[in-house]
Structures
1.
Amino acid sequence: MKYNFKKMNKEYAEEIAYQWKYRGIYSFYDITADEDDLEEFLDPDEWDNSFVVLNEFEQLIGFYSYYFKEDIMWIGFGLKPTLTGKGYGAEFVKAGIKFGIKNYNYDRDYLMLAVAKFNQRAVKVYQKLGFKIIDEYLQKTNGGEYEFYQMKLDLE
């Protein structure tokens, strides 16, 4: 699959927020599941480091956000619900990492992500790509408190 990264805009943000609905336990990732997340996701002032991912047919298939804490890149992303669980995850994550490194001229030797601990499907994909769990923590979100992993990928 070909991946084309474009800046986030209102049309894409609203489509993702209001039309993308994940099944079962993965509904945790619905943007509308947390009012603060929804407000932030739809705020154009938050889009400086946010991108949509289109396929070769210019169809929206995902999004990426890049954050920097103490010069370390953190990635956050979502794959269109109809594409999850079908083997696209690893390729999608690799494409986002490659884009982020190139777009930001990122030259540090590692990057980070956070993932809900219950999402073992994603954790396995990240581990397959070389990510290592380096910490666990509790985070308040979606009206509750959830366990998360911090995962690190060495880029050497």
2.
Amino acid sequence: MAADREFLNRIPYFSGLGPVELDGIRKLIFEKTFERGQMILIEGESAEALYFVASGVVRVFKTSIEGKEQILNMVRPRESFNDVPIFDGDPNPASAQAMGPVVLYGIRRRNVEAILRDHPRVALNVIKVLAARVRDLVSLVEDLSFRHVIGRVAKILLEHAGDGTAPLPRLTQQEMAAMAGTAREVVGRSLKALEEEGAIRLDRHRIVITDKEALREIMEAPS
């Protein structure tokens, strides 16, 4: 699957570029594929390329010395990851893993630098992307600091439901725990509580949202 011009123009990095500019960037892109569970990046290793998700979902996470995981971001189509080490030259600050079959478009560091020099519009787009990323991290800190676990779980369910335009991989309770900054057993109890509130239905290995508004109220309830 080659990176087509229309797809590139929908990537925030390249928004607003003309056909000739996009065609020049296409020549610098390489493609990689991964299966569910495959590691894409390892925390602490050198960063070789900036990646954009063409299809699938990638989870970006930190791991403590004890092996506890904290998911920082779930990266979906047209979104980027590994931006920071490409720009500051330091090692990967987090690991990345495929949540299912994933296709990535990559641009090597030296080519990213050339694109920024040649296309000032891209540099402005990058500032906006990184500013949004900072807001997301501030929101994560806020959730971990001030929101009850059940509220965090409700938020994860609402966000992972998406807009219905593309299928998303199922989250395990362990993955939800890594996103919520808690233990799998606590997530299990929270899901049971949400079911008792009528917000969701636990259907074997599926979680069905039955009352989005109730779920949103639980998410927004003060701690």
